[in-house]
Amino acid sequence: MPDPRFYNRTGPFRLADLAERCGARLGSGSDPDRLIHDLGSIDTATTNEIVYFADHAYVVALAASKCGACITTDELAPKVPPCGVLIASNPRAAFAELAAIFYPDTLATPPQIEALAADAVVGEGALIGHGAVIGSRAVIGARTRIGANAVIGPGVVIGEDCKIGANTTLAYCLVGNRVIIHPGVQVGQDGFGFASTAAGHKKIPQLGRVIIHDDVEIGANCTIDRGTAADTVIGEGTKFDNLVQVAHNVEIGARCIFVAQSGVAGSCQIGNGVIIGGQVGIADNVKIGDGAQIAAKTGIMRDIGPGEVVMGYPGKPIRQFWREVAALSRLTKRDK
Amino acid sequence: MPDPRFYNRTGPFRLADLAERCGARLGSGSDPDRLIHDLGSIDTATTNEIVYFADHAYVVALAASKCGACITTDELAPKVPPCGVLIASNPRAAFAELAAIFYPDTLATPPQIEALAADAVVGEGALIGHGAVIGSRAVIGARTRIGANAVIGPGVVIGEDCKIGANTTLAYCLVGNRVIIHPGVQVGQDGFGFASTAAGHKKIPQLGRVIIHDDVEIGANCTIDRGTAADTVIGEGTKFDNLVQVAHNVEIGARCIFVAQSGVAGSCQIGNGVIIGGQVGIADNVKIGDGAQIAAKTGIMRDIGPGEVVMGYPGKPIRQFWREVAALSRLTKRDK
Amino acid sequence: MPDPRFYNRTGPFRLADLAERCGARLGSGSDPDRLIHDLGSIDTATTNEIVYFADHAYVVALAASKCGACITTDELAPKVPPCGVLIASNPRAAFAELAAIFYPDTLATPPQIEALAADAVVGEGALIGHGAVIGSRAVIGARTRIGANAVIGPGVVIGEDCKIGANTTLAYCLVGNRVIIHPGVQVGQDGFGFASTAAGHKKIPQLGRVIIHDDVEIGANCTIDRGTAADTVIGEGTKFDNLVQVAHNVEIGARCIFVAQSGVAGSCQIGNGVIIGGQVGIADNVKIGDGAQIAAKTGIMRDIGPGEVVMGYPGKPIRQFWREVAALSRLTKRDK
């Protein structure tokens, strides 16, 4: 269930009404009057929630799910355990539609039309820079300093002794203590998620948060998207250089180092003490083990084990990378 | 002719005066009193406009041009059809000088010294965030929301139902309907154009615009430069992830996807439905056909046909890329 | 000695007190009451200053140093010439602690709690945009324009005829004349410097500045960190495209070109007239000679001589790069 500090839910809705509004049809035997209260995921859904099921790989998990309803395809429908069923040709796009129905107002951070919301809480000794904007129900911890012209969105919680740079935007996030966020950082905007159809790219509402643990430092002009359903998480003591990109649902462990201009695609899981060199790119859904080191400019497209040292495009063990560099150089001599 | 909503033209000027001010000399037989009203390009110039001609490749186009004057080199001067002629050792640098004469005030967005210009138009139901700055003659469409501390430059037109993030800067641009621009995006600054001479890099005035069509989404901290003479164009329904760079005069089609930290150099033409992976770089003047797919981290230096799937540095057909990866790996074994 | 316009020093402190506060012990024969007034570097320290010595390579330089005290390891202590000695297991981390003692207030730019500080100086004909924030003792030169919502930190000096974009943050920097800084640029934040220990990454206070010479242009959303002890320097007439990263202590010569999304790691020295292509990455401590050219996407990990033209990952002479591309392509044919 999305965090009610950030997202206003509507509903509940009748299953038949949801079907109509998202262009699906009711599965045979499904109760049209069943009330659905929220979106869920297969693992954690309750009997009030609807999930989507678009991939055979989740058959076993779905069998164990407590979900109240499920949106799926004609082909997969026979695999669905007893619950309400909606049938759609593109369940992911239909689920995006459902998300927009339950959470209609989440496509962008509201503009904050007052400077310091009356119901924001500012801790003792905190300093708010000129032109900074503090949203409704935001909480600024003791001794935290907010830079000039920073924008802190509604419901955002910032811990104690933090330093938030000028011209930053923080939305949909919970920030720990002693966190340093440099100027121009953008945290908590929508992740880059679309259900692509013939008619174009349909936006999937992003209903998660960004969780930034204690002692994190985030360099100038970095961008950290919020999660789709789960959260984007930055572990304790992890440090980002400038212009780093972190996509939605990424989970990063403690005490990692991200050098400038590196980027991590959606849903990656990165362990503790990992070092990511400058301009490294990591494809989506990759796992990187504790203490791994990725050399600058490497492109990672597969899981990396704990302690591995990797370089190249595609990334490979660093000694193999240098062997290949040498072999290729020798080859040009041999060819002459 | 540059868009008068964004650029204030001076003049007209006598051809002889222009010659003197840009360090050129009058071609033999040219009328020193001929009045020149504006800059033009070879294809579209009128008899009031001056163009530059510095490359043999344009001889045929120039022969058909209606331009009133032309700045060129001694060597190329005999190829110029009947019109006023100026001779310069570096016509591109001299033309940059002329641009600065006709449009003296265009080197940077003015600072916007008032919060909401008296002649700006704000549509019904639009919301302007705290600290946002709306320039003279700007138009904000109905129900569009402008984020806190965003800066909307003079003459900018934004359509209906748009969401403009906090801390963005929009200048010299026309934005369609239902466009989402995330926080920290910079649109419409000068393109990166210089005429390099022994004395240094002379700035070429950038007199175009950025045109953003309906349903475009632009990720946090992206940068989109305005055109030099023509426009930078983003087609309908195209989506940018964070930290993407788009240089001057780039034309991007409809429904494309640009993953984070990709960059497109000047004057590229990108078709419809193209997918550009993360950290891809595309060199200037490249054409990419409809439906092409460029894998993450690829470097493109040549035209890519419709539907091609390309990977590597330099980019090549993706199967060839993986064949080379395998061959290089085998080579290190053979060498042992 | 850090620039007192930007950094407030405390002290002096007794050597024994410093030892206790940074977790070091006094070397045998060192006067516990010796007063230390500041941090220094081996080359330039005075008898009032303390330096750190953690690498045999500096034995000769240290022998000639005028430093008043030195923090080092047990093993290196016998090499220290007569002066106060502190012994620590990790002298770099202990020195970071000392820096935080002498300069306790430097971990982030203060938030600027007023719009235009009473003691700021604004030159004749300068224009300050709406929402811009000008810090204490800042100096804005004649005819310089500051964009809307820009934040100019305390003590910053900007020359004449500059154009500073909207939503920029300038701190700890001195800017020459006719400099153009595009929107969203972040200058002068902390460099990315840590002393890594078992307990995590300990921040090293960054006590230098950014020096930007005349006629420099800096593209949108670039990030330029200030120096650690020395300065980050951008030479006259050098031009940056958008989204470029410059790390702490980098020195860049005159009339260079940096294309978009390139990045330079800490302490690099780059000559005059160097051209750096898009998405190039340069590792730390590299020297690049005058007039060198680095092709787009190249990764540089070694020094590059004057006039060299380099491409690839790792960077190599450009003809060798293309030979290797051809050889690898042939290899896949041979393998079939």
Would you kindly provide a written description of the structure presented here, covering whatever features stand out?
3 copies of one chain form a homotrimer. Chain A is α/β, with parallel strands linked by helices. Chain A has 2 domains: 13-102, Udp-n-acetylmuramoylalanyl-d-glutamate--2,6- Diaminopimelate Ligase, Chain: A, domain 1; 172-320, UDP N-Acetylglucosamine Acyltransferase, domain 1 (3 Solenoid), CATH 2.160.10. In chain A, strand 37 (309-312) and strand 38 form a beta hairpin. The relative contact order of chain A is 0.07. Chains A and B meet through strand 21 and helix 4 of A and strand 9, strand 12 and helix 4 of B.
List keywords for this structure.
flat, 336 residues, homotrimer, Udp-n-acetylmuramoylalanyl-d-glutamate--2,6- Diaminopimelate Ligase, Chain: A, domain 1, UDP N-Acetylglucosamine Acyltransferase, domain 1, alpha/beta, 27% strand, 12% helix, 38 strands, 9-stranded parallel beta sheet, 11-stranded mixed beta sheet
Element layout with pairings:
Three copies of one chain form a homotrimer.
Chain A: E1 13-14, H1 15-22, E2 25-26, E3 35-36, E4 38-39, E5 49-52, H2 59-63, E6 69-72, E7 84-87, H3 91-102, E8 121-122, E9 127-128, E10 133-134, E11 139-140, E12 145-146, E13 151-152, E14 157-158, E15 163-164, E16 169-170, E17 173-175, E18 180-181, E19 186-187, E20 194-197, E21 200-203, E22 210-212, E23 217-218, E24 223-224, E25 232-234, E26 239-240, E27 245-246, E28 251-252, E29 257-258, E30 263-264, E31 269-270, E32 275-276, E33 281-282, E34 287-288, E35 293-294, E36 299-300, E37 309-312, E38 315-317, H4 318-334
Parallel strand pairs in A: 4-5, 5-6, 6-7, 8-11, 9-12, 10-13, 11-14, 12-15, 13-16, 14-17, 15-18, 16-19, 17-22, 18-23, 19-24, 22-25, 23-26, 24-27, 25-28, 26-29, 27-30, 28-31, 29-32, 30-33, 31-34, 32-35, 33-36, 35-37
Antiparallel strand pairs in A: 1-3, 2-7, 20-21, 37-38
